[in-house]
């Protein structure tokens, strides 16, 4: 395999694996958030705000991977 | 058939006016232009809103007051307490500037550009926050207190050669993560919208509706993302400031 193909493969793998990990993380986070809201509906506002903040942090990890993937894709 | 929309060309920075001052290139690029447009929108909006003299606000002023109250109560006071109100203007300015830059880029004009989807813009913002936090930390706590911040409390002195470099690394990593989070969020959203639009320009006409719908939904989602990212950026600035200034 030449280096161009490797770079494209790497960029695909980078974003795919990152999306998998982020998906797990976000799934846990939203699941726990929903659990908390259903248990204590009056705290929904606070839980939702913290959850959105946490999601933004987790999402950022996938986006770092996206930047790497784009670098790899355009280097090729 | 190749797509008519090239996402990469659309996201590249085009120079509108070549300028160079003392050998340094200071081109007026799209990012600069759209930051100016954003500033103009903000200034006109706030000037118009502050011209109202009635006790009960109307129109745009309601939205701005709600946002400002949110920043003051939920971002500044919650993290820094009542003394943090000194930093309310800078945090509100950062919030509104990032918000407007995120949203101005979403207006579907032929050459519209999101200034915050450029790493240079977000890096400059993050660098500003970094310098502000360090300067305020030294000013409030003094140079000794500032340096003591690198030594975590309750750590055995054997571990210090390990802990201090980790603290320094985590300090230096902050502006990077601030800059890349905002930049990557805005870039990813716009690439997605552009890819959808690119799909809509190719292929069988009946199938074009699906990506067009996708582009519309993503544009709506980007409005939300722009708001959340502005919130995250200002919230993190407030948290960093409260850490640097705390216990005063």
Features:
A: 76 residues, mainly alpha, 0% strand, elongated, B: mainly alpha, 4 strands, globular
Tell me what the structure shows.
The complex is a heterodimer of chains A (76) and B (248). Chain A has 76 residues and is mostly helical. Chain A has one domain: F1F0 ATP synthase subunit C (F1FO ATP Synthase). Chain A contains two helices and no strands. In chain A, helix 1 packs antiparallel against helix 2. The two termini of chain A are 13 Å apart. Chain B is mainly alpha-helical and 248 residues long. Chain B has one domain. In chain B, 69% of the residues lie in helices and 4% in strands. In chain B, helix 3 packs across helix 7. The longest helix of chain B has 41 residues. Chain B starts with 6 loop residues before the first helix and ends with a helix. The model of chain B has no long low-confidence stretch (mean pLDDT 84). Classes of the chains: A mainly alpha (76), B mainly alpha (248).
Q: How are the secondary structure elements laid out?
A:
The complex is a heterodimer of chains A (76) and B (248).
Chain A: H1 3-39, H2 44-75
Helix pairs in contact in A: 1-2
Chain B: H1 7-11, E1 15-17, E2 20-21, E3 24-25, E4 28-29, H2 30-50, H3 60-80, H4 88-104, H5 119-148, H6 160-200, H7 209-245
Helix pairs in contact in B: 2-4, 3-4, 3-7, 4-7, 5-6, 5-7, 6-7
- The helical percent of chain B reads 55-70%
Q: Kindly state the mean pLDDT of chain B as a whole number?
A: 84
SS content category of chain A:
mainly alpha
Mean model confidence by pLDDT of chain A: 87
Shape of chain B: globular
Q: Which outline of chain A best applies?
A: elongated
What is the helix tally of chain B?
Answer: 7
What is the CATH T-level topology of chain A?
F1FO ATP Synthase
The low-confidence parts of chain A are: none
Largest sheet of chain B: 2 strands, antiparallel
